[in-house]
From TrEMBL:
Residues 1-20 are annotated as: Disordered. Its cofactor is Mg(2+). Mg(2+) binds at D409. One of its GO terms (molecular function) is hydrolase activity. Residues 45-231 form the Fumarylacetoacetase-like C-terminal domain. Keywords: Hydrolase, Magnesium, Metal-binding. This is Fumarylacetoacetate hydrolase family protein. Pfam families: FAA_hydrolase, RraA-like. Substrate binds at G386, D387, I388, L389, R408. The keyword 4Fe-4S does not apply. InterPro entries: Fumarylacetoacetase-like_C, Fumarylacetoacetase_C_sf, RraA/RraA-like, RraA/RraA-like_sf.
Amino acid sequence: MPVPPQAASTTAPQVSPPPFNTEECRLSDTIESAVEALVGARPGKVIAVHINYPSRAAQRGRVPAQPSYFLKPASSLALPGEIERPAGTELLAFEGEIALIIGTRARRVSPAEGWNAVAGVTASNDFGVYDLRYADKGSNLRSKGGDGFTPIGPAVLPAREVDPAALRIRTWVNGVLAQDDTTATLFFPFGRLVADLSQLITLEPGDIILTGTPAGASVVRPGDVVEVEVDAPAATRPLTTGRLRTIVIEGTIPLAGYGAEPRVDNLQRTEAWGSAEAAGLAPVAPEFVLTAALKERINSVGTATLSAQLRKRGFNNVSIDGLGSTRPDVRLVGRARTLRYLPNREDLFESHGGGYNAQKRAFDSLGPDDVIVLEARGERGTGTVGDILALRAQVRGAAGIVTDGGVRDLAAVTALSIPTYHAGGHPAVLGRRHVPWDTDLAIACGGAAVQPGDVIVGDADGLLVIPPHLVEDVVASAIEQEREEGFIAEMVAAGHGVDGLYPMNADWKARYRHWQEEKK
């Protein structure tokens, strides 16, 4: 988007930035000579913004009320190439950023005037060694000021040809996208940064402002390749800086003892990596396993009791409703695998319905204790599974089949030992109403949300979906509830009334505890 003509400053007249020598200027030779060729001056100051992207603020857990800054020496600037991780350090982190190159003197300009002082934008990488942050006491001089710690380039986008609120920044590490954000939601737009800095500091041609990094910044190691690109996707013609490519190498000369030496702790590791999990510091919850002992305990209580305990914990929407079972006498306990059908559309069925489609892949991949749960949108006007696939699930050792759609070959499926919960029989083939689309994702079945790995429990009362992290607690409470209800039933059979007994008041609870002791 064209930038409006520069408004006059009330305190210092401004001039338009000098034109670039070419439509797309590529930095070459040295930083000093390249920037001088662009704006008529060599780089003076490098000023960096702490936090400017909402995604980064969410990651760091703090939202700035006003912009804050730190200085980097001009000697930290570099072209694409190599960066040395200082010998003896652990936490070299990248931060892909958009760099503003100041093209005209700015002092006490307004936010509306600030963008007019910018000659161009380019990609930059604000590298830092977290091992030395403690020594900087907030200045970032040692941790971020090392030679080569601010690569920029490889090309500059003319400020007059881009909308500062419609730029995109992306960073790749070893070819994998690590950062992807835009300037649309910055806390502090570029014009405001220039204006704020210019209140006390004269910005001069060649000065560079690093405008903050989005979420995704993390640690890199020797051998890693970091690439940063800034582009303008909405521009009338393709505009990109190209990828700023930096290769990390290991330093060979350790820091001398007459200065601060590297020091890290878990707080610095968490900050550098972006999270405790990424740094390998957060305790990893043990993977939930549906053991034989746990299945036995689940099978010792009814779904009605489990439902009551889930309700006590605020889970009121965990029943798969409206289905009948081919084997109501068989208890179903297993972990969900999911399959989703889309409503039939001829072109989609042609591309996804034939051959080794998602339905066949899902049934072929089942294993012991798996319950294949099918989202058919409650559509009963066709079959969603038939005798061959049901037999395949049984042979694979699966615990059961659940579909809120129809079943073909219902008599044959009913004759199998594997329990199949369904909305009714129907002779039509799958393609009449459904396209098998994707597997192992969150789905809806019978009015309930089901995620892969959820525990599915079914009996004559119906089907429940239990989040894995609740299973142990819910089952333990359900066992105790049924023990209490056994006592209550025994008392009712002996002639006692239910008032005060169901539920038990304090007197009956005392008698229940005595009854328990006698049962031991």
